[in-house]
Amino acid sequence: xxxxxxxxxxxxxxxxxxxxxxxxxxxxxxxxxxxxxxxxxxxxxxxxxxxxxxxxxxxxxxxxxxxxxxxxxxxxxxxxxxxxxxxxxxxxxxxxxxxxxxxxxxxxxxxxxxxxxxxxxxxxxxxxxxxxxxxxxxxxxxxxxxxxxxxxxxxxxxxxxxxxxxxxxxxxxxxxxxxxxxxxxxxxxxxxxxxxxxxxxxxxxxxxxxxxxxxxxxxxxxxxxxxxxxxxxxxxxxxxxxxxxxxxxxxxxxxxxxxxxxxxxxxxxxxxxxxxxxxxxxxxxxxxxxxxx
Length: 293
Description:
By secondary structure, the protein is mostly beta strands. It has strands spanning 2-4, 11-14, 24-25, 29-33, 42-48, 54-60, 68-71, 74-78, 82-86, 92-96, 106-108, 111-116, 119-124, 130-135, 148-149, 155-159, 163-168, 174-179, 187-190, 195-199, 206-209, 227-228, 232-237, 240-245, 252-256, 265-271, 275-280, 283-291.
């Protein structure tokens, strides 16, 4: 587990439109999309992770999903379909417009999962070609949540406004169904154990067993998307965060930065082993990490 080592950030990248989703990083670069669906002049921004300098950017539409996907030297966005770019320089590699993607994609072992038009699709990440699709009509309204590849063998989670569904990633066969009301701002988080954590604004973080979809003990409430690792969940808000062990116990380690110029946390954070990247209402802030024993 890690905590911020200092109240002083490594760097801060200001943005006229605050980042709308969770940043992604490979330790060398960090990327995010500015603004939320419906806003104009949105962009995909890619920065150097060490110093925060701009590497490249790309304009996206009003309808683009706020979340992006990074892996295998590429970055994918859901914008009137799926678009794959080279991570190094932003060159477009492929574009798939049918079906129009309703959700951001997820990646594992060269395969992309995406929810669109009442179906869960598995695509070849190299080319965008379809491998299989399965109907998931009981998810409810169209999903803005990315599917989730889990630690369970061959298990893929799809989420909509009314339920979670687990299917086999081999052929799309349904494994279990969990009715659950999810808002468009909900997040699915893997805890590193045999659990799925579901965060919904204004509600307690819910624990769901991946093997069968059964509900477990809740973990408390937070207004900002939590960050989880193998042993703990981090509850963020204001200008800092608290840590709570997944095994139970009190929240500890409230750490804060004091400068108003960097803004308040509004969305989420991501860690790469040496730094934490915080979304604020004024841009993206990077702070050092250190190991906590």
